[in-house]
Write a structure and sequence with these properties.
By secondary structure, the protein is α+β, with helices and mostly antiparallel strands. The chain contains 11 helices and 30 strands. A 5-stranded mixed β-barrel has the order 1-2-3-5-4. Strands 8-7-6-9-10 form a 5-stranded antiparallel β-sheet. A hairpin with a 4-residue loop joins strand 19 and strand 20. Helix 9 runs antiparallel to helix 11. It is rod-shaped, with a radius of gyration of 55 Å. It starts with a helix and ends in a 5-residue tail after the last helix. The C terminus is likely disordered.
């Protein structure tokens, strides 16, 4: 019978155990030599006859006993007549037909040998003893070890870290610690792991007393993880972290160490309470960052290898353990780079300039564009004011168009510089993206890297002579309504040239809403009231088209008188004295209407300026750098135009 609780604890079946060791135990545990022959007794007998199947043995009983011939293995000495052997009495059988109680005796040589071996082992082996034996075979759940008898070594007890295949121990002689002994059932369970742990505990205690920070110790690499390697220092494991393996860049610890490799490492830190040790490999040599400023002075040009490319820049190795970052903004003076991979790849050898060094953080900033001359340093000489340049429209914004005049060099063509006469709301009215155009350089701001371009400046200013000569005060002209506002109507006189027909000049009667009188597209005959070349404005009137010269003269005289009355001082009198008069001057109806119209026009201009400013704020940063000046320029044009009152 087998101690099932003992065997099941280590995950081995009863059948496997019996097959490996044999069921030697019986209900009677009194295995004694005696002259009295009975079942389960070991006695000495003499071989008297041998045949092919049985060996007949005389054990001094009423009849001889038999042993199966196959109990002798081929490699051991074969039985001979007259030979003395020790056997186990397994059974006594009655022989039918005999009245003398004689029966056949069943004997076993093999079981007798095993039982005597067990008895000998029981006399010398105790729990927690160290035993040595050869691993004979592998069974389910573990190994059998011959220490004189077969004992069970569970797979979980073979080593501290369970081997991939415990069968590799077969044929090897190993030492184990006896965990449990069942005297009645002759079962012994041993553990090699417990022995190793006990030995390591002793060595660990001794080793911890010897170790000191800064020491160099030799060890064996036992395990490798993504974050580092565990090194056995001879009783205790230390962690060699990946960051302490090399001053240079490594992606995985396996690039530096291998399992079972012997290493010399430096003790970096010891935690005696948790029994943890930090090890270093790179610390055996001096840090390459020492005196890095002397090796790589700022503004010097050096060569390096690209080791990594990120979205924000590229890391360049200058030497083992020394890497610097080339930020994407430091890669080119002129090219617009979306990702560093457009210019560099891993393992490329490139020239860089040292920009900054932070020895404390162990950081070096590098630049690629600094190895070449800055093209903006020559822009002022290359593109002086009034020079004609050709370029491609690269981008359109609300306030203008960016023209690429050479790779990486853009100029801004503002909407106010596109036409002398035409009111441009958006640059797409004149140009389109990708179009080749010719412009004139207006100004160059080298420090802020800005070039102002003009399209209208390619021609002479028509307001200088042409428009004043063709359009004069009192002239009747015909045009079409292009735009209606709350303060008046814009009338197109020719392509790009507009005049303002103020709300007060629309009709003889008072007009509250210009749309009640005219619509966009209507053809109107109007009279020119004035032409202002400096302000680039033409004032128009519809109500005065039919006026005679005397009507005009009367209107002009009335306006002059009204203006004079506005400018003349008013005598304000109170309630004391003989003279009497108004305390405050009351505004006339004409003055009140004029003030109201002016306020509405100013409010409309303010709203337009705010809308323009909001649109410009939505532009990309790289191009919106020029937006503030552009906004101011555009708002000024709009406001002066909308608040115009030709009367």
């Amino acid at each position: 019978m087998v101690n099932r609780n003992l065997i099941r604890e280590f995950d081995v079946s009863e059948e496997d155990w019996i097959a490996a060791v044999g069921d030697l135990a019986t209900d009677d545990a009194g295995w004694l030599d005696t002259d009295y022959v009975d079942v389960n007794q070991i006695v000495e007998g003499t071989i008297i006859r041998i045949d092919d199947e049985f060996v007949l043995v005389d054990v001094g009983y009423k009849s001889e006993g038999t042993i199966a011939r196959n109990e002798w293995e081929e490699e051991e000495d074969q039985p001979e007549a007259g030979q003395k052997i020790r056997v186990l009495v397994e059974d006594v059988e009655d022989v039918q037909g005999h009245n003398d109680d004689r029966g056949m005796i069943v004997l076993s040589k093999r079981k007798a040998e095993k039982i005597e071996k067990w008895m000998k082992v029981m006399e010398t082996v105790h729990e927690n003893d160290i035993v040595s034996g050869e691993v004979t075979r592998k069974i389910k759940g573990g190994l059998l070890v011959d220490i004189g008898v077969n004992v069970f070594l569970p797979a979980s007890q073979v080593d501290i870290r369970r081997p991939h295949d415990i069968g590799e121990y077969i044929g090897k002689t190993i030492e184990c610690m006896v965990l449990k002994i069942d005297d009645a059932r002759r079962n012994i369970v041993v553990s090699r792991r417990s022995l190793i742990e006990a030995q390591r505990a002793e060595k660990k205690a001794e080793l911890l007393k010897e170790l000191e920070v800064g020491q160099l110790r030799k060890g064996i690499v036992k395990n490798i993880a993504d974050f580092g390697a565990f090194v056995d220092l001879g009783g205790i494991d230390g962690l060699l972290h990946i960051t302490d393996m090399s001053w240079g860049r490594i992606n995985h610890p396996s690039e530096m160490v291998k399992i079972d490799e012997e290493l010399e490492v430096q003790i970096l830190h010891i935690d005696y309470e948790k029994e943890k040790i930090a090890l270093g490999l790179k610390q055996k040599s001096a840090s390459p960052w020492e005196n890095v400023g002397d090796k790589y002075p700022v503004n010097t040009t050096v060569k390096g290898i690209v080791v990594n490319v990120m979205s924000y820049g590229a890391f360049v190795k200058l030497e083992d353990g020394i890497e610097g970052l080339v930020h994407i903004s430091e890669m080119s003076w002129t090219k617009r780079i979306s990702h560093p991979s457009e210019l560099v790849s891993i393992e490329d050898e490139i020239e860089v300039v040292v920009l900054r060094i932070d020895e404390q953080k162990q950081e070096i900033s590098l630049g690629m564009k600094q190895t070449q001359s800055n093209p903006w340093e020559k822009v002022a000489d290359k593109y002086p004011p009034d020079q004609l340049v050709k370029g491609k429209v690269r981008n359109l914004t609300n306030y203008g168009a960016f023209i690429e005049i050479e790779e990486g060099i853009d100029g801004l063509l503002h909407v106010s510089d596109m036409s002398w006469t035409r009111k441009i709301s958006h640059p797409s009215e004149l140009v389109e993206k990708g179009q080749e155009i010719e412009c004139k350089v207006l100004s160059v701001d080298q420090e802020r890297r800005r070039i102002a371009l003009g399209l209208k400046q390619m021609d002479e200013d028509p307001w200088a002579t042409d428009i004043p000569n063709r359009y004069q005060q009192g002239q009747l002209v015909t045009g079409s309504v292009t735009k209606i506002t709350n303060f008046g109507v814009f009338v197109g006189l020719e392509d790009g040239l507009e005049g303002l027909l103020h709300i007060s000049e629309l009709a003889d009667h008072k007009v509250e809403n210009p749309q009640d009188v005219v619509n966009v597209g209507d053809e109107l005959e109007v009279k020119i009231l004035r032409v202002d070349s400096e302000e680039r404005k033409i004032g128009l009137s519809r109500k005065r088209v039919e006026w005679a010269e005397e009507d005009e003269a009367a209107a002009e005289a009335a306006e002059a008188a009204e203006n004079a009355s506005r400018e003349a001082p008013v005598d304000l009198k109170g309630g004391i004295g003989s003279s009497s008069g108004p305390l405050f001057k009351t505004a006339t109806a004409t003055e009140t209407a004029t003030a109201t119209e002016t306020a509405v026009a100013a409010e409309t201009a303010t709203e337009t300026a705010v809308a323009t400013e909001t649109a410009v704020a939505d532009e990309p940063v790289s191009e919106a750098e020029q937006a503030p000046e552009a906004e101011a320029k555009e708002s000024e044009v709009d406001e002066s135009e909308k608040t115009e009152n030709p009367a």
